[in-house]
Design a protein that fits this description.
The complex is a heterotrimer of chains A (244), B (421) and C (398). Chain A has 244 residues and is an alpha/beta fold. In chain A, 39% of the residues lie in helices and 26% in strands. The chains are: A alpha/beta (244), B mainly alpha (421), C alpha+beta (398).
């Protein structure tokens, strides 16, 4: 529980003139579950997208599993193989079946034989309980099923860290539970997770630490019990009163 | 290659000003080299072997850009410049090539078009410069616009078009109640007025045969008539294609696919040589009328597909609502479906009209001389040989202005109606 | 009272018989069509009788007695009209294939350039599209044929390409390929294509079983180059060239004899068609690439695929599905537009058959119908192919 798997030191990022991350300092230990919350535009999505370098930071240092993120290409794909990501819009590949979606990266990146990749894919799909949809195409699945398939796809690369960017925000209410259940299972299995979400119930159940961001700054960072019981900053208090 | 460039030294942010000044200097050196080479025949690098000499502007520019390629320099203009044109060596190379090609070609083009061109004069001899001879266009201008229409009667064509423009413009500024009457007038009464004015024969106006009509005015006449008539025909075809009655549906499909599958030239040939065979012996239908009918049917098929797209994209709920209110087929379509569908298809209709205008020059193969046909006639006139380029550039500019503005307008319409939904 | 009842009965009669409303319009349409066709046929018959022309296709066997300037097969004035038609068809296909080839390359380049973040590149691409799209194709064709190509030098001062090809106002002259044992070479090409297919199949099996990826591309390239080359060494195939030579035909006229002459008409038509159609293909390509949502690229990146793999496995399959249908439509348009050849005397179907042949025989109805049917069959074939392709590739939804 002590080895640092992600380190962000004095990270700053601009979109043109607009500064979206201001002096972010964050350390994540292996097997830790962190929930990041905050109002829209606070920079929380940008924060986790910097971790697998879907966004590039201009100042500061980010180290993921011992590898520093910089312009060097080779290590970016290495990092991404270790970090899985689940998106708000699912982003499944519509032209491939579910099992092909999951097996694609293991076959082409890890160079695993097709049969073996398919077997592991089916196992992952079973874990998120959509094994019966394996041969179907994304367009034929419901939102909740698609998101669970996206989780399985990310897990097929056997990542050390899983990043979730508002995974339930695009779902109808009755489907949110099935996705959160899958995420809880994953947490219980010992995965390091960083989740950007508004689902505070999930945070209370699973998170070790909760981070509140506003306008690019980390306003408050505390372990879960502390965060909900005694929020220190006024902004945090305001935010919590609005969503709880 | 990127590694090998490092011997030049990688620019870094600390010595910002140093690198920018060096880079800018070398870059400007490259530009000056190109300009001197192309226009003043001076070669500042003539000491170098032939091939190297040819590429020196490129090398200078490339090195210059390499030095100013500093990420996140803090200077806003430099940053946006770098991100845009100079993000890597490949981009820098392409940007340089474009800049050099523009520098080498635009001044001679401007020279030919304006600075060395002749604008004044009456005869071919007065075109002495090395530039374009716009005298040619100036002298032939009335013919290019009005064709072979007698000069004394040109006022009739002008009057017709002025009326048309006045009606259309007034249609925009009048309250909706009067608008309806204007549209009905435009669709049903105006064509008769127009035909009588232009063709004459009645009301004391001298008769001008249709073979004398020509030039840009003929382009407009054909386009407007074809558009007016192809729209209702296209609408019936579109409705027919969606009908549940098999005979009507398949005859519509057959009709539409036939016209869409053949080139316009064959349609024009059909109109000019085949159609007379199908008319009763002794009757004669004016060639222009036959051509307009052919073009109308041709464009109606494309228009039908555009309208059908609109009908299809209308939510089924509209049809259901209409039916559940007890409306019959025609009432439902007239009151509910078509008003909505037509709004959706306005961009497609504008596109079809644009294609129609671009297709009109083809009528010169059957002997009707619109703008391009008149230019052909002008350039083969013995007094004015050798000015094909000027003629086609002029026609190109005219068409370009018309078509470009129409397509801009249709894009605006498309955006306007998209946000409406 | 009685009167009112009877009128009510009549409207009830019509609305209570839906079958009536269904069948009546159809019967009327059929009658209408028969009437129109009958009217036209009758008039045509009368007109033809009066002029002493008979109707029939026998004229196709008669001697054509006109020459055709450019032909891919052997043809002279003594051949039949049917053969002249064939020459026209081949010439049309030739210019269409050349046009499609260049239009596709140019269109793809420009479409991708439009999406470049480089301001200069995307603006240049935009101006190209706006320029060539808004000028009528016929006008562009005339410009190339009457203005641009006429400005080329006379054969005496022709533009020289490494002393093997010459470009002058009379045309582009390139060396003629003279083969011995051509069939052997041809079979070697087919053999290497088959071998490449097997290489790909084998590589795929390898990947499925062991995960290793063979360098398929380079192996295929090697096969494609080496096998045909071998036929030269051991297959008895040899290639010699007949070069165009500048000869003096008369006191003032020089021209190139020998080699293959690509006439200016073909060059102008191919150039105009390619440049014009490329604008539309560029827009199709751009729509296709933009149509793949940004999230797809991110998701593919987040599972560790390299940029090359992302393009090949995720972006292109989706983009191609959007690009191919409208692009095929553009190919069809290009083929139909090739009929503009009639305006500059390039001997395609329209000029040869619906132009010269019709003027000589006066058989307007048969000839124009055959010409239209030729284009129609081409359209239908391509439509069927497109429907099949769309069905096969459709992204499955609920």
């Amino acid at each position: 529980m002590s080895d640092k798997i992600i380190e962000m030191i004095e990270v700053n990022k601009w979109f043109g003139d607009f500064q979206v991350l201001k002096n972010i300092n964050l350390t994540v230990s292996s097997k830790q579950k962190i929930v990041v919350c905050g109002p829209s535009g606070s920079g929380k999505s940008t924060l986790i997208r910097c971790i697998n370098r879907l966004e590039e930071h201009q100042k500061g240092k980010i180290v993921v599993d011992g590898i520093e993120l910089s312009e060097n290409t080779k290590n970016i794909e290495q990092v991404r193989a270790e970090v899985g990501m689940v998106f708000q819009q699912f982003n499944l590949f519509p032209h491939l079946s579910i099992v092909d979606n999951c097996a694609l990266a293991p076959i082409w990146v890890k160079k695993i034989p097709k049969k073996q990749a398919e077997e592991s894919a089916l196992k992952q799909l079973e874990k998120v309980q959509i094994l019966d949809q394996a041969r179907k195409f994304p367009g034929q699945l419901s939102g909740g099923q698609q998101q669970r398939a996206a989780i399985a796809r990310a897990l097929c690369m056997e990542p050390k860290i899983m990043l979730f960017d508002e995974p339930t925000s695009a779902l109808d209410p009755e489907m949110i539970k099935e996705v959160l259940d899958a995420m809880v299972d994953l947490a219980k299995g010992g995965m390091t997770m960083i989740v950007v979400t508004h689902e505070m119930g999930f945070a209370k159940e699973v998170a070790d630490e909760v981070i509140f961001m506003d306008e690019g700054l980390i306003v408050e960072k505390a372990n879960t019990k502390e965060f909900f019981a005694n929020p220190k900053s006024d902004r945090t208090k305001l935010f919590l009163s609005q969503i709880l | 290659m990127i590694k090998s460039l490092n011997f030049l030294g990688t620019p870094s942010r600390d010595k910002l000003n140093l690198f920018i000044s060096i880079g800018a200097f070398i870059f400007v050196l490259g530009i000056i080299d190109v300009i001197l080479n192309s226009f003043f025949e001076i070669n500042i690098t003539s000491v170098l072997p032939r091939w190297l000499n040819y590429f020196t502007p490129l090398i200078f520019g490339f090195i210059g850009l390499h030095y100013i390629r500093i990420e996140f320099s803090g200077n806003r203009t430099l940053d946006s410049l770098n991100k845009n044109i100079n993000s890597n060596w490949f981009n820098a190379l392409l940007s340089l090539l474009i800049i050099f090609v523009l520098i080498q070609n635009i001044p001679p083009l401007l020279n030919w078009l304006f600075f060395d061109a002749n604008f004044v004069g009456e005869t071919k001899e007065e075109c002495t410069g090395s530039g374009a001879c716009w005298v040619f266009i100036k002298i032939w201008f009335p013919r290019l616009i009005y064709g072979l229409y007698p000069n004394a009667e040109i006022w009739r064509i002008n009057l017709t078009f002025l009326m048309l423009i006045a009606l259309v413009i007034s249609g925009f500024f009048v309250p909706p109640k009067i608008k309806k009457y204007i549209i009905i007038f435009l669709l049903f009464v105006f064509p008769f007025i127009a035909i009588n004015l232009i063709s004459g024969g009645n009301f004391g106006l001298e008769w001008v045969e249709t073979t004398a009509w020509g030039g840009l005015s003929l382009t407009f006449i054909i386009s407007i008539f074809a558009l007016l008539f192809c729209f209702p025909v296209g609408m019936f075809l579109a409705l027919g294609r969606r009908s549940s009655a098999p005979v009507i549906r398949y005859s519509s499909i057959g009709f539409i696919e036939f016209w869409r599958g053949v080139p316009l030239i064959t349609v024009l040939f059909m109109a000019s040589v085949m159609m007379p065979m199908f008319l009763p012996d002794g009757t004669y239908m004016d060639k222009l009328v036959r051509v307009i009918i052919a073009i109308t049917l041709f464009e109606a098929a494309y228009m039908a597909e555009v309208i059908r797209g609109g009908l299809q994209s209308l939510p089924r709920g509209q049809y259901d609502a209409g039916k559940s209110l007890g409306m019959g087929y025609w009432r439902m379509h007239l009151l509910v479906i078509l008003p909505q569908a037509l709004k959706l298809v306005i961009p497609g209709v504008a596109n079809t009209f644009l294609a129609l205008v671009k297709d009109t020059p083809l009528i010169l193969v059957v002997g009707l001389l619109e703008l391009v046909g008149m230019i052909d006639m002008a350039k083969t006139n013995p007094d004015w040989l050798g000015f094909a380029t000027e003629g086609y550039v002029f026609a190109g500019v005219v068409f370009w202005i018309i078509c470009f503005n129409m397509s801009r307008y249709s894009q605006r319409l498309e955006r306007k109606y998209k946000t409406d939904r | 009272m009685n009167f009112k009842n009877s009128s009510l009965n009549i409207t009830n009669f019509f609305s209570s018989k839906p079958k009536f409303r269904y069948y009546l319009p159809q019967i009327l349409t059929v009658l209408g069509i028969i009437f129109i066709f009958g009217y036209f046929s009758y008039n045509a018959q009368v007109n033809m009788d009066n002029r002493g022309i008979d109707f029939g296709l026998r004229f196709l066997g008669e001697e054509a007695s006109f020459d055709i300037q450019f032909s891919l097969i052997e043809y002279s004035g003594t051949n039949s009209y049917a053969r002249a038609y064939l020459v026209g068809v081949l010439n049309t296909i030739l210019v269409a294939v050349i046009g499609i080839f260049f239009a596709t390359i140019l269109g793809v380049v420009i479409g991708i350039s439009r999406l470049s973040p480089n301001y200069l590149i995307s603006k240049v691409a935009e101006w190209y599209i706006e320029l060539f799209r808004n000028i009528p194709l016929l006008l562009q064709l005339f410009f190339w044929y009457f203005a641009a190509l006429r400005a080329l030098p006379l054969p005496k001062e022709a533009i020289n390409f490494f002393d093997v090809a010459y470009l002058s106002v009379k045309g582009l002259y390139i060396p003629k390929f003279i083969w011995t044992n051509f069939p052997v070479f041809f079979y070697s090409i087919i053999a290497s294509v088959v071998a490449i297919i097997f290489v790909y199949k084998y590589a795929r099996k390898q990947q499925e079983n062991t995960g290793k990826q063979l360098p398929k591309f380079f192996i295929s390239l090697g096969i494609f180059v080496i096998v045909p080359l071998l036929t030269f060494l051991i297959g008895g195939v040899s290639l010699s060239f007949e070069y165009p030579v500048l000869t003096q035909l008369s006191k003032t006229i020089f021209n190139y004899i020998g080699g293959v002459a690509i006439i200016p008409e073909l060059m102008a038509l191919a150039a105009a068609l390619s440049l014009y159609t490329a604008t539309f293909i560029a827009e199709c390509v751009r729509a296709g690439i933009m149509g793949v949502t940004k999230g797809q690229k991110e998701a593919a990146a987040s599972i560790g695929l390299t940029p090359g793999q992302i393009l090949r496995l995720v972006i292109m399959p989706q983009a191609l599905r959007i690009i191919i249908p409208p692009t095929t439509n553009q190919y069809l348009n290009l083929t139909k537009n090739s009929s503009l050849a009639a305006a500059i005397a390039y001997p395609d179907i329209v000029l040869v058959f619906a132009g010269t042949a019709m003027m000589q025989t006066g058989r307007a109805i048969e000839i124009v119908s055959i010409t239209m049917l030729t284009y129609l069959s081409l359209s239908i074939v391509i439509s069927i192919f497109m429907n099949w392709y769309n069905q096969k590739m459709a992204i499955k939804e609920k």
